[in-house]
Amino acid sequence: MKQIILKNNQLRFSAFEDGSGPLVLCLHGFPDNYHSYDQQIPTLVDAGYRVVVPMMRGYELQSQPADGDYHLNHMVEDVLTWVDQLGEEKVHLVGHDWGAVIGYLTANTVPDRLLSLTTFAIPPLQGLSVAIRKNPRQILLSWYTMFFQLRGLSDWWVERSDWKFIEKLWHDWSPTWDIPERTLESIKQTFRQPGVKEAALTYYRHSFDSSSAQAKNIKNTMALKTLTPTLAIGGWDDGCMSAKLYDSAARPDDFPGGLSVERIRGAGHFLHQEAPEKANKLLLAWLKKYDL
C-alpha cells in the first residue's frame, strides 16, 4: 500500500491506495480509522481492484473544517471530489457505520457515479425509523447517541482513563470478538490527535439537527429511492445496530436498482474485521456482479 493525500478545497485527507482495476472506495465509521479495511484490501487487490481507503472528515487535523460543520452532505461532497481526483467516472462504494450512512446518501445523490454500494452494520435508511419502532430495544442500544449531546460531560468521559469508553463501545458492539490490542491502540492513537474527538462527536450532535436547511436536505435525500445496486451486510451479534432491524428496514420497493441483505453469524458491529473471510466472499461476489 502507498499513502496518498485526497483533497476537497482546503481540506486534506490521508488515504491508503493499492492495486489496479475498477475503483473500490471504502469509508470507515465511528470510532475507527482507515485501518478498518486492512483485511479487505489484500483480497480486493488480488481480485483485480484498485482500493482507496481515506480517513474521513475530521479524523485528522488537516481535514477539520474551520467552521466545525459535520453535516453529512459535506461528506458526500468529499466522496464525489475524491472520485473526481482519482480520475474515475464510476466506483464501487463500501461503507461501515457512519461510512455506510454516507454511502447510502451518496448513492441517492449521484446514482450515476456508482457501480454498486455495499454497507456494513447499518440497515437501509428509508425504512429505518419504522424498523426502530418495531424493535424498541434499539433505542436502548443507541443510548450513546443521546449521551453525546451532553457537551462537556461526554467529551470528558470519552477521553478519561485512556479512552476506556472507546474500548467499551468496541466490546459492547462486538461482544463475541477477542479484539486485538493493536486495533484498539490504533483507534486511541487516532483520537489522541487534536480535534478528532470533537469532530467525531459532532457527527452525532449534527444528526440531531432537524431545523437547518442542511438537515432538511439530508432527510429528503435519505427518503429517496436507491437506484444503485445495494448489498447490506449485518452481524447477528451486533450490539450497536440490532440485526433484526433489517427485517423491516430492508424494503425492496425502496431499491429499484436491487437490494440484497446478508447477516453473518458469530459477528457483531465490526463484522468485516471479525469475520473477514465471510465478509470478503460476499463483498467480492457483489462487486463482480456489477463491474463494468
Protein traits:
292 residues; Rossmann fold; eight-stranded mixed sheet; 13 helices; 8 strands
Question: What is the secondary structure topology, with strand pairs?
Answer:
Blueprint: E1 2-8, E2 11-18, E3 23-27, H1 41-46, E4 50-54, H2 72-85, E5 91-96, H3 98-109, E6 114-120, H4 128-134, H5 137-141, H6 143-147, H7 153-173, H8 181-191, H9 196-207, H10 213-223, E7 230-235, H11 245-249, E8 259-264, H12 271-274, H13 276-289
Parallel strand pairs: 3-4, 3-5, 5-6, 6-7, 7-8
Antiparallel strand pairs: 1-2, 2-4
Helix pairs in contact: 2-3
Could you walk me through the main structural features you see in this protein, from its secondary elements to its overall organization?
By secondary structure, the chain is α/β, with parallel strands linked by helices. It is built from 13 helices and eight strands. It has one domain: Alpha/Beta hydrolase fold, catalytic domain (Rossmann fold). The mean pLDDT is 97.
How would you sum up the major sheet? Answer: 8 strands, mixed
What is the global morphology? globular
Order of helix and strand elements from N to C terminus: EEEHEHEHEHHHHHHHEHEHH
Number of helices: 13
Strands, count? 8
Count of discrete domains:
1
The CATH first-level class comes to Alpha Beta
Enter the CATH topology name.
Rossmann fold
Task: Describe the structure in brief.
This protein is α/β, with parallel strands linked by helices and 292 residues long.
